[in-house]
Please model this.
Amino acid sequence: MSVKEAILVVDDEIILLLSMRQELKLAFGSRFAFEMATSAQDALAAIERLGGQGTPIVLIISDWLMPGMHGDELLRKVHAEHPSIKLVLLSGHAEDAQMNALAEEVGLYAYLNKPYRRTELIDLVRGAVAADR
Amino acid sequence: MEQSFASRWQARDPKTAVFNYRFAAFSFPASEKAYALAVGDLAERLGAFNLRLIVAQGDPSTDLAVLLRKSYAPETPIISIEATDQERVKHRDQALLYQYNSHDYTAEILRLGIRLFPKASSVAILVNVGSGDQSYLPLIEELRAEHPMLRIVPVLNPTRSTVDEALRDSPKVSFVILLSPGWVGADGRLLLGSELIDWIEQGYGLPVLSSIQEFAGSGMVGGVGVTARNYGHAVADLGLSLVLDGKEPEPWISSSGLATSFADYQALLRFGVSPSSVPNGVELINQPVSFWVRYRYLIATGIALLFIATSVLVGVLLLRSRQRRFLVKTNETLELKIADRTAELRAANEELEASNENLALMIRRNEAMQDNLLRHAREVTLGRLTAGIDHELNTPLNAIGSANEAICLVLSDAEGGIAERILSLDEGQERLFRRYAPMAIGGSREALPNGADSGSIEERLVGLGRGDAATIAGDLRDAGLAALEDDQLLELSRADAQPVVQALYRVSALGRSTRIIDSALERIVDVLRTVREYITGLHADGHERRVVLRESLDRALLLFKNRLPASIALETDYRDIPPVRGNDAVLVRLWTHLVQNALQAMDSGGILRVSVGRDGGFAVVAVDDEGKGIPPEIADTIFDPFVTTRPLAEGMGMGLAYCKKVVESMGGTITHSPKERGTVFTVRIPLDADA
Model:
């Protein structure tokens, strides 16, 4: 049985999660399992669950500003425990300085600006999973 | 003491006088009753004058001094003049007593009288009560010893009757001496010394020599001779030296050296005495003066004035002529200067006009700048609002775009789109599609497909012996087909069912897209409504009715139920209270804003408490969070529009402004107060009066 890889998207906006998931699904079909989380805490729980199931996570796309734990903190935690997971930060506005510091710290794969274009997202994800190979 | 003494004292040599002192003078009659009154009067005035030194004269003043010293002015030095030796000893410790030696000047008066009236064989000496009375008896003996040829008739405590008696019995008296002539008469009828003197002079035709002290009023002057002219000065010196040195002088002062005499010219003439017989050292007073003497000062002043006037006139004339010459000379220079100055002024004027124009320009610029600023402020406000709206609308608009793209993709994908996929299904597959299509479309209604379901589907597929369980499970879940029975799972996981699953997934995507669009539109409408309601007011729709707050709150909280992070617990405490009057939808939005704010503040979790209670005629709703609190710098402005704790453009910052407007439009209040951890927002809304 082939082990399917997962892509985790984290955003407190459900509407965005649904849209992005659909965009990814339509672009990549059944190639990945698309996991959604509405908060950093939920995301950590999902990572743990997927790990328990043996589903490897190849990419995490996380919003920056969320209630509770912010995206940068989530990505720092993930990077500390799972350095192989590619990380993308999604935000409407993050300070360049913060971004650069984070990029250096967690080896941010990319930064996706809100609002993003569908093709931007697809190209970014395609690049991320291809670079993995 | 009388005023003239005080003024004389004040007029002393400035080198020795203490000019900071004010001088108050009081005069005391000899009658005991009047004396008692005077003491009270003086005592009363002591405080008013803040006296630093009291100088008293005469025998009664010894008692006065002692009395004042003891009762009214214990700290004030008192000099009492003419105290007798016995009194001085008796009152040594109670007052400063000085005997101004009256004996000496009485003897001098007598000598003066003998010089003026050489043929005199008898003299009457009236010893007034102020002169030390009894102590004069030894003096009389001394005088008799000094002038053995003279008959001396003493009259103690002279009054008209005693004087009358004495003079009637002694017809050969040539002249009379009156000592201490202030007030005379101990028989109860007081008499001015001058009155007594006039009475003696006119009634008996006898000259009276009086020890008139110069400081006694002019009304007392009437006798021929006076001793102790400097008596007042001596008193003044004594007092001043006491004040200046700050130490007490010897309590015994002999004053013989101070005595001076004078004689009244007019009185001498009246009694046939030649003024030329006045001995040396005796001054003549009341002399007639010549025209020159009388007016010498006036004449001298006139001459001086004339001289000055002439000098001034001459000076002015001289100056004028010099000025004229000078003017002629300087006029030309001046004209030149004036021309220069005129030119300068003209230039300055022009400069002024120019700078005026500049000023006007600057004012215009300022006005323009103010307009700009106002416009700028409006633009900033508008900008913030626009940015906020833009941000709020961004996500839903993108979602709509994304959903639309998804629909387009489904309708026309590489394999010919959903239509082609469905049309290419065989009969059996079509049946399967028809059976599951409603579920696929409906299943996507779930807001967020749960990853756990996908896991369990996968596990069940593995359990059912299906290969590629993960892919199929993911597809089924994405197709909204998570809640399947085992036989349904088996049916759909067959290889020939996969085109059906793909088609179902796409149908499901269409359904999901419409719901995304629905939800996005709802968000957009909500944002716009908030802005519109804030800007145009809330009563436009007028949909007011009775609202039960607990229901309204529950509706709002329902929106958060699925989104509440695990770290946040929600507790509600609803008391049964009457309804309020309001717009239910508006109230739900009000609570939504408050809860959303609270949740946003609770980064690190905690308990969010929402309660409904009552306080008199008000419903009280509290939203109580354990968040990070409101930064103090915005605590006062938190209800203003466009204030937000979130970064710029992250929100419109209108939530609390909206809340305040809503609450106040209902006649209520909204306040916030910090807690040890977090913030409580308290909303008070009047209960429906009709309920």
Remarks:
- Chain B touches chain A through 56 residues (CB under 8 Å).
- The CA atoms of residues 291 and 546 of chain B lie 119 Å apart.
- The mean pLDDT of chain B is 74.
